[in-house]
Amino acid sequence: MLRGFKNFLMRGDIVVVAVGLIVALAFSTLIKSFTDSVINPIIARAQGGRTLGLGWQLGRPGNKATFLDLGSFISAIVYFIIFMAVVYFLIVVPYKKFQARRGVTAFEEPGPVKTCPACLSDDIPAAAGKCRYCGTEQPPAGAAQRP
Fold first, then answer.
1. What is the dihedral of CA 113, 117, 120, 123, to 10 degrees?
2. CA–CA–CA angle 55, 60, 63 (5° rounding)
3. Residues 84, 23 contacting (CB under 8 angstroms)
4. From the centroid of its chain, how far is CA 66?
5. Distance from chain centroid for Cα 147
6. Which residue has the higher pLDDT, 15 or 54?
7. Which residues contact 76 (CB under 8 A, 6 or more apart)?
8. Residues 6+ apart with CB under 8 A from 70
9. Which of 51, 53, 64, 135 is 20–30 Å from 108 (CA)?
10. Rounded to 5 degrees, what angle do the CA atoms 109, 114, 120 make?
């Protein structure tokens, strides 16, 4: 029973989804800080509003709603970078090593790509026989493409 649970948890897609959710939460914090500290004061200035900290006062002195608070935004950027480093070094790297011992490649680098001569999509896998976007036959990998 525990072996099945362990195998369930160690499936690549579950860890990828978990890391994706963690990144999304951290990114949402960054976005919220940007909107609270930069966008909202600009909007409040247009409407007439009040704040204090590192940044510029866009309206009357002491008005918090019109203060462009760069200090909070810089803090959120630092938080995001530190959080992503922790996720990478404490979750992703050990998971990649564990999966490598099991003979499974996790978080692999994307393969080589080519550009479709018909629709100019530049993310077609090099081994593809048809373009995923327009359905055009693709020259074999290694063959020179016509302009």
1. -10
2. 65
3. yes
4. 30
5. 33
6. 15
7. 29, 30, 32, 33, 34, 37
8. 37, 38, 53, 54, 55, 56
9. 135
10. 130
By the 8 A CB rule, do 62 and 12 touch?
no
**Cβ-contact 94, 112 below 8 angstroms:** no
| Nearest one of 4, 38, 26, 12 to 92, comparing CA atoms | 12
For the whole model, what pTM was predicted?
0.53
The one-character DSSP state at 64 is G
List, for residues 60-87, the tens digit of each pLDDT value. 777 777 777 776 777 778 888 888 888 8
